[in-house]
Structures are given as structure tokens and as C-alpha cells.
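Thread: "does anyone have the structure for this chain?"

Original post by V.I.:
We have the sequence but no experimental structure in hand. Need at least a predicted one for the grant figures.
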Amino acid sequence: MTASSEVPARKLTPKGLATRERIIEAAAELIYEHGAQNTNNEQIREAAGVSGSQLTRHFPTKEALVRAVLAWQADVIVARHQAPELGELDSFAALHQWADSYIASQDMLRGGCTFGSLAAEVVKNDPSHRDAVADGFERWQALFRRGLGRMRERGELRPEADPAALAHLLAAAFQGGALLDQAAQDSTPLRDALYGALAYIESFAVKG
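Reply from O.Q.:
Generated one for you, C-alpha cells below.
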């Protein structure tokens, strides 16, 4: 099932867009708490305050709604990484500030990464969503690649530092650490994973 099953957002009225957004946000919260498999239309309708016809008009199938939630969660995580205080994620200070913001987040203890948790579930249970998952992770890692690339261009990282490989490292450290945090209800695993990844990146720093 593809996203074409949805009512295209560009064809909706402002009221329709608001309803669509409300449905997606309600579904995202329920799926985060209970998983996609354990979330049904009745729960979503009640949480979003919409009728059954409104829900099916915007999202005729559950697959279409899950894809919309994946895209919405990817937007949220990308926006968080573009917060003004993080700049372009193109300095060691900015990367440490990014890590600290997540280490201090209770969301990591409550349910792990919102995007990563759903991605792990749907890739296993419905491979048709693999492209949406891959796109979300690519958009996120592109922010790290761009920032690290700028650091290398400015001579802050040695030429052999590979922005793509280091972006993979940061993403993997974050996802793995978030899962361990969720299991242990303790932020130590995420802190150790992210600080370890940052220490490795700093090993490529050009000494002044």
C-alpha cells in the first residue's frame, strides 16, 4: 500500500489539513505507546476527536496512516536537529549539545526514539514501509554528514575523516543507546554510547 491511498494534503482546505494533522499526531502518540500492531481505528478516532468517515477519508487504510506517521516523525526529528542552538551541527560544541539534549530527555527513558521505535516494528512486520523508513533515516543522517563535511572543509577534521561513516556511527550510537535506556530506565547507556561516538569523532580533530 502506498502513500497515494491518502487524500493529498495539498488538495485539502485549512480545516481539512488541521484534521489530518490531528489524526496523525494522535496516531503517532498511540503508536509510540502501544506499537502499530496494537493500535486500532477506534483508539485513533477517540484520541483525535474525529468520526470514522473523517478517518477513512484521510487515511483509507492503516498502511497509509502508518506511512504518514513515519513521515511526520521524521519531520519532528529533523526539526529537533535544526534547533537554532545547534546551528548546522558543524562544531564539536554543537554535537555535544545535541547529545546532552537527548541524554537529559525523559522521552528516551519512556519509549526510546519515536521514529526508531516505529521503524524497527514496521520494517519487521511490513517490508512495504522500508522505503519510508530508509528515507527518514537518510534525512536525519544527512544533517550529520553535512555538518561533519563542513568541519572537514574548514580543516577542523583530518582529511581521512569520512562524514558518511561518522554519521552512521552517531545514528547507530543514538538508536542503540536509546533502546538500552528504554529497557533499563536509565540514561547511562545512551550517555556512554553518544560520548563514545563523539570521542571517536574527536580523534580526527586537527590539533592546533
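V.I.: this helps a lot. The chain has a mean pLDDT of 89.
O.Q.: and The CA atoms of residues 104 and 187 lie 8 Å apart.
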